[in-house]
Amino acid sequence: MQQSIIATVDIVLLTLQQQRLSVTLIKRDNPPFQTMAALPGGYIHAQEDNNCLDAALRILSTKTGIVPPYLEQLQTFAGIARDPRGWSMSVVYFALVASEVITAAQHDGLVVCAVDDLWHLPFDHNDIIAAAVARIRNKSYYSSLPCYLAGPMFTLPGLQKIYEACLGESLNKVSFRRKMDELNVLEPVSGQTEAHGAHRPAQLYRLKAQFKNQLQLLSRGL
Amino acid sequence: MQQSIIATVDIVLLTLQQQRLSVTLIKRDNPPFQTMAALPGGYIHAQEDNNCLDAALRILSTKTGIVPPYLEQLQTFAGIARDPRGWSMSVVYFALVASEVITAAQHDGLVVCAVDDLWHLPFDHNDIIAAAVARIRNKSYYSSLPCYLAGPMFTLPGLQKIYEACLGESLNKVSFRRKMDELNVLEPVSGQTEAHGAHRPAQLYRLKAQFKNQLQLLSRGL
């Protein structure tokens, strides 16, 4: 016979704030750690959720009002030591959204904080965020993942800055553009440019419709 | 209040058999799917296992007698549809061992089958194995992971064949050796060579002690 195990889902919802990779925290309504900021999360509802992804989308929507375009399972954090209530397992998902999406959600109690400036968070949430950042950093080398951090329209120099914020390093402009061509997820928005001081206005791009909810991978990295 | 959720761990234990990536199945002792071959797995014991990795090692040791050098969390498979007993979550780990390790375990009811030749397995075990193979294939491009499939001593041509079996493609000998140098996980075994017909005997290598339980990654892939 199985002892009772707490089954939860937590979501690492990342965005860019002042060009820095940042995580969305929410004030906890209930004990333990009531009123402290932590990752949005909650119990799996076996009678309501068909699977963990369902649970993640339900919890994120209820607690933050946000429906991300792309949600990926990160890892399961589990054990006796991570939750004062008992043996718990949390299936963790991560999502990336443009900062406007979080602003527009207008939910009370949302806090966006740069991942490099975090204080000590409840449970093992610091470890969870570190694992999510490592995954994103790695995956940014060979996928369209950082594009989800951009708004609906962006310039190529703007997108390069987003990739650089994810990777934590500078990229060569020529090879970045070659890789974006190879990914083949972007299309120019006809007649839309962005003025940049004395420079020639930059063409605006957007994600092609079929890649708004689907990641594209490179066979070789950036 | 939370409804009851079944919390289990399953292990995808992979090896090479006739140069083909193969998975270890075990005859199930209990319902559901009693007597059918499936992945080794079992309930998490909250009073015994400190975390999921503990549970995976306990289950693998009890059911197969095998203690793998390296065990990595793959993904959690969960939901209402995958287990006839109810809403279940399985935290899945994968491990790679040399085929001699499975032979030496001498446990009854172990079946080793090429991953490309599998029949329909219980639960979502076919999906789980497919996900493990995809992870291994991807990770073999940039890590020492396939080395765990080799025995205690191996030649470089032998190790290249192992990498090729994981990747499902042929590799260039010169670039393979350069990447192995870069990984820097191997050492020649002094005075040990393997005869190959009319060819010059090949030097035997082994994993350096510090990499027997620890994966090494390349910054750029094979």
UniProtKB/TrEMBL annotation, chains A, B:
Residues 148-207 form the NrtR DNA-binding winged helix domain. GO terms for molecular function: hydrolase activity. Transmembrane segments: none annotated. Residues 8-123 form the Nudix hydrolase domain. Keywords: Hydrolase. Pfam families: NUDIX, WHD_NrtR. It comes from the Bacteria. This is NUDIX hydrolase. It comes from Methylocucumis oryzae.
